[in-house]
UniProtKB/TrEMBL annotation, chain A:
Gene3D superfamilies: Phenylacetic acid degradation B. It comes from Halomarina oriensis. Transmembrane segments: none annotated. Coiled coil: none annotated. It comes from the Archaea. This is Phenylacetic acid degradation protein PaaB. Residues 83-111 are annotated as: Disordered. Residues 92-111 have a biased composition (Basic and acidic residues). It holds the Pfam family PaaB.
From TrEMBL, chain C:
One of its GO terms (cellular component) is cytosol. Pfam families: PaaA_PaaC (PF05138). InterPro entries: Aromatic_CoA_ox/epox, Ferritin-like, Ferritin-like_SF, PaaA_PaaC, PaaC. This is Phenylacetate-CoA oxygenase subunit PaaC. One of its GO terms (biological process) is phenylacetate catabolic process. The gene is paaC.
């Protein structure tokens, strides 16, 4: 069986996918995950998940539009021309959204 | 997670000592007092998202342009999504399931923010919620990125990421009305006069009168007091109101105390009887909102029956 | 039979332009009104997740309406004239779109969107061959979102029909909605020109046949029956929408839709996003 491994580097971090292991069962998968994905890089916690239990949505599959293809700018703070700098939390939200927007543009460019 | 990976049981003193940003999570064996306090706080927040969506909902249909309709629909959608995230964070505490919390909301046991007990009359009132109340909520939420219950902080990360658009769209509606006709400006002022005291009550009674505040602060669930939050809100939103030509009503009196560098609100000028009636879910209009939620939930009960226990059918149908 | 490509909006003959306009009104009004109805389910969905999904579908369909109304703007109309100041009886959407929902009738929402989305899919497929370039440019985006809508409706139908009560409710919704669903294929006054000029080369009558086969086979597989093919012509609802006749539900929806615009005494509809041609 294949198990996917998600590593949390330090407490309070999000778990991030780092790879997988082959193992006959869940117990062995947990053993292998530790030596394969945590022996150099720090790990506070590992999630070890049977691959077949993971449902995937692939954007290359026919008909997958990931929330839509037509214009969705209305969902973004960056679309509105009022000033966001008056409150730090609005500004932070705007900056995160700008970053996400750059990410989307890059993803589109690489497609 | 398997039991042997669970951390050791913590007593309240240890919780208070360790309390810090994102300090505790589902693998920590937290004392019941903490789990109950966190559940109460997050459930309140989640309920508020749902009931906030309820009062904005009519304006999806009533929005006066295609783009505004899209934006209002997206906002209501986000709020339901925030409710989903928050109920999940609360479920993690092992006290209540999402079903239970939604049932409590429908039954009138679930508590939520005072401002969402007042249905909105028309479009002029919409920015009172979308700009001022959501802005106040955003101020509070930003401080919760440092809450001690990690799943709550994770939910807050996503909420704050999305919420900026709500306030900016709210301001865009406010700006459009404020630069409209004289009648627009007058109606906007009326809406503001009506909502301003409610907005000032958003942060609750002053700290020394607030009941659950001390414990929540001591265990790091809450990271800022009511008074400091209200000051932080007034610091940026009061000038905004003025920028859009809104006159700040004389009562409730709001004064800036140079010594403490804080805005002070004359507590006696606010209607705390109404506030407490709302807090008990007994304010007539708010009750109307809760009853609506109750009817909605009941009306789709059959769907949940059908998907969760297929084949059984429902004897109580129709 | 391939038709000659039509020119740019300004170069159309009167006959061409009237046919293009009739088709665009039909497309745009269908999307706009059905989407607005879907938003009735916001805060009312059977689960939080279902609520978020139908809101997204509503926004997709509104986005399509926006694309089609925008093509009408090529002919000099403003959004205000196309929606907010237009009389209720000038709307050309099929009356399926405007039916109000009984509280909690999720089966209606699911069946309606299934009927609607299969019809839209067939219509959009037919439009892939359109002779009007401005429509051709936008088909891919519209089509890209429709797959999710159909799958969503089908998944829900399958789940509801695993349950006796669910099946009963779905059957009731099919029976109630069928006469209105058929109005999706009722012609506007320009139908012959729309087909002859190749703006939509496939006639609505043929799309109805395809729709009947597809939806009938799927629903039959779930144990839900549909009317006989021979009975369809007599079953079509009296108010088709395509000729401006509507049910009372529309007047109520229209009054609410236009309420704020009228109350604010508006003369313009605020745009928040770039023109579709500029993205």
């Amino acid at each position: 069986m294949i198990f996917e491994v998600f590593r949390q580097e330090q407490r309070k971090d999000y778990h991030v996918h780092v790879g997988n292991v082959h193992a006959p069962d869940r117990e062995m998968a947990r053993m292998y995950a530790q030596v394969m994905h945590a022996r150099r890089k720090p790990a506070h916690s590992l999630w070890v998940v049977p691959k077949e239990e993971i449902a995937e949505v692939d954007s290359d599959d026919e008909g997958v539009s990931m929330g839509g293809l037509t214009q969705k700018e209305y969902r973004w703070a960056t679309n509105y021309n009022t000033d966001e700098t008056f409150a730090e939390e609005i500004e932070a939200s705007q900056r995160e959204q700008e970053e996400a927007e750059r990410g989307r543009e890059e993803a589109e460019a690489n497609d | 997670m398997q039991d042997r990976y669970k951390h050791c049981y913590m007593d309240i003193e240890e919780v208070k000592q360790r309390a810090g940003p994102r300090e505790f999570g589902p693998t920590d064996d937290m004392p019941e007092e903490y789990r109950k306090a966190a559940t109460r706080m997050i459930q309140f927040h989640a309920n508020s998202e749902i009931m906030g969506a309820y009062i904005e909902r009519p304006f999806i249909r009533q929005a006066p342009s295609l783009d505004r309709k899209l934006a209002v629909s997206a906002q209501v959608q986000d709020e339901i999504g925030h409710g989903q995230l928050l109920y999940r964070a609360a479920e993690n505490l092992g006290i209540k399931t999402r079903e239970q919390m939604l049932d409590e909301l429908a039954n009138g046991e679930g508590k939520f923010l005072n401002c969402f007990h007042y249905p909105l009359d028309d479009w002029y009132e919409l920015p009172m919620i979308m700009f001022f109340v959501d802005g106040a909520a955003m101020r509070r939420q930003a401080t919760l990125k440092r809450t001690s219950w990690e799943p709550y902080a994770h939910a807050i990360d996503k909420i704050c990421f999305e919420e900026g658009f709500h306030i900016k769209h709210g301001e865009s509606i406010l700006a459009e009305l404020a630069s409209g006709t004289r009648r627009d400006q007058e109606r906007l002022q009326e809406a503001f006069d009506k909502w301003w005291p409610r907005i000032l009550q958003f942060f609750g009674p002053t700290d020394d009168q607030s009941t659950h505040s001390d414990f929540s602060s001591a265990v790091g669930l809450k990271t800022m007091g009511n008074d400091a939050l209200r000051t932080a809100f007034l610091n940026v939103y009061l000038p905004k109101a003025e920028k859009y030509g809104l006159e700040i009503p004389d009562t409730p009196a709001v004064t800036f105390n140079e010594d403490t560098q804080r805005y002070e609100v004359e507590e006696d000028d606010l209607d705390w009887d109404e506030f407490m009636q709302i807090a008990r879910n007994q304010y007539p209009q708010g009750k109307g909102q809760i009853d609506k939620r109750h009817r909605t939930q009941e009306a789709v009960e059959w769907v949940r029956d059908a998907i969760e226990n297929p084949g059984a059918g429902s004897a109580a149908a129709d | 039979m391939a038709s000659a490509r039509l020119g740019a909006p300004g170069d159309l003959s009167e006959r061409e332009r009237e046919a293009v306009e009739a088709l665009l009104y039909q497309l745009a009004d269908d999307e706009f009104v059905v989407a607005d109805r879907y938003t009735d389910w916001q805060c009312q969905g059977p689960t939080l997740e279902a609520d978020i999904a139908i809101a997204n579908i509503a926004q997709d369909e509104l986005g399509h309406a926006r694309l089609w109304y925008d093509l009408l703007q090529d002919f000099g109309y403003e959004e205000t004239e196309l929606i907010w100041e237009r009389e209720a009886e000038e709307f050309r959407h099929a009356t399926l779109c405007e039916q109000s929902f009984e509280s909690g009738d999720w089966a209606d929402a699911v069946v309606r969107s299934y009927f609607y989305d299969v019809a839209e899919f067939l219509q959009v497929e037919a439009l892939a061959e359109t002779s009007y370039p401005r429509i051709a440019d936008r088909i891919e985006k519209v089509n890209g979102e429709e797959h999710y809508h159909r799958e969503h409706a089908q998944n829900w139908l399958e789940r509801l029909c695993e349950d006796a009560e669910g099946t009963r409710r779905v059957q009731a919704a099919v029976d109630d909605l069928y006469p209105y669903a058929l109005t999706l294929f009722e012609p506007t006054a320009k139908e012959d020109d729309i087909v002859e000029l190749g703006i939509r080369p496939t006639p609505l009558a043929q799309l109805r046949e395809e729709w009947y086969d597809l939806t009938g086979a799927f629903l039959d597989g779930l144990g839900v029956s549909v009317p006989d093919r021979e009975a369809l012509d007599d079953l079509v609802a009296e108010e088709t929408g395509r000729d401006g006749s509507h049910t009372d539900d529309w007047q109520r929806q229209y009054n609410e839709l236009t309420y704020t615009y009228r109350m604010l005494d508006r003369t313009e509809a605020r745009r928040l996003m770039a023109d579709p041609d500029e993205v």
